Amino acid sequence: MVKLTVRDRESIQEAVRRFRKLVERSGIKKEMRRREYYEKPSEVKRRAKIRAERRNRRSRLLGEI
Fold first, then answer.
1. Model pTM score
2. Among the residues of 1-65, which ranges form H helices?
3. Domain extents for the chain?
4. Distance, CA of 65 to CA of 58 (rounded, Å)
């Protein structure tokens, strides 16, 4: 949960800008997009497996150089 206290003499635009940054850093937007549609557990595992394979392939290629 993101909490923002408005500072003295701070304009609304500045407060909104700070709020957006806080939300972005906390990962709330990313989580909302991920949960927008139901994803089957098998699809989640499949995506994780593909991501791990790419990560391993990249590390092997960088290790050879």
1. 0.57
2. 12-26, 28-34, 41-64
3. 12-64
4. 11
